[in-house]
Amino acid sequence: MTDNVPEATTTTVTAAADNAEIVQKFLFAMAEEDFDTVESLAAPDLLWQNVGLPSLRGRARIMNLLRRGQGRMGFAVKFHRIAQEGSTVLTERTDALIFGPVRLQFWVCGTFEVHNGQIELWRDYFDFFDIMVKAPLRAALAALIPSKRVSF
């Protein structure tokens, strides 16, 4: 029966799968501080929104910010779910911001728009209480009691 599937449908499914892979590659490259890869996957007018905070627009501006944190702040990501439809990729994940021995770990839901192999929109949603209160308390407890350190 697969002989009756139009080629356009197959192409659309493949493109959507590729978009999810691009998003994963982008975030894993950030975790590895591979900023050349991050930059290659970002569209020139990338819009980065952390809902509730000011937005950033422009690959050059965003890359400048990310590169300034190199060696001073670490990032880690664990994907729980990823879904895509056409150019839109949705992620449910846990992110970690790492400052020396302090690891702030929190849940994030992200929306990405991918066109022509580059991310044009990166919008993350998260709970401010989780980031501003719970994650620092967990990190402080882990600093005092190493066996309480969180990991993915």
Please, could you describe this protein's structure?
The chain is of the alpha+beta class. It has a single domain (2-144), classed as Roll (Nuclear Transport Factor 2, Chain: A), CATH 3.10.450. It is 39% helix and 38% strand. It is built from four helices and six strands; from the N terminus they run ααββαββββα. It has helices at residues 7-31, 35-41, 59-68, 128-144, and strands at residues 42-50, 56-57, 74-85, 88-99, 102-115, 118-125. The protein has a six-stranded mixed sheet with strand order 2-1-6-5-4-3. It is globular and about 45 Å long. The termini are far apart. Residues 5-14 have low confidence and may be disordered. This is Limonene-1,2-epoxide hydrolase. GO terms for molecular function: hydrolase activity. Residues 18-133 form the Limonene-1,2-epoxide hydrolase domain. Keywords: Hydrolase. Pfam families: LEH.
The structural class is alpha+beta
The CATH architecture designation is Roll
Q: Major sheet: size, sense and barrel closure? A: 6 strands, mixed
- The radius of gyration computed from the alpha-carbon positions, rounded to a whole number of angstroms, is 17 Å
- Specify the overall morphology: globular
Individual helix count = 4
User: What order do the SSEs take from the amino end to the carboxyl end, as H and E?
Assistant: HHEEHEEEEH
Parts with pLDDT < 50 across at least 5 consecutive residues = 5-14
Mean pLDDT: 86
Number of strands: 6
Distance between the first and last residues' Cα:
42 Å
Helix fraction by DSSP (H/I, runs of at least 4): 25-40%
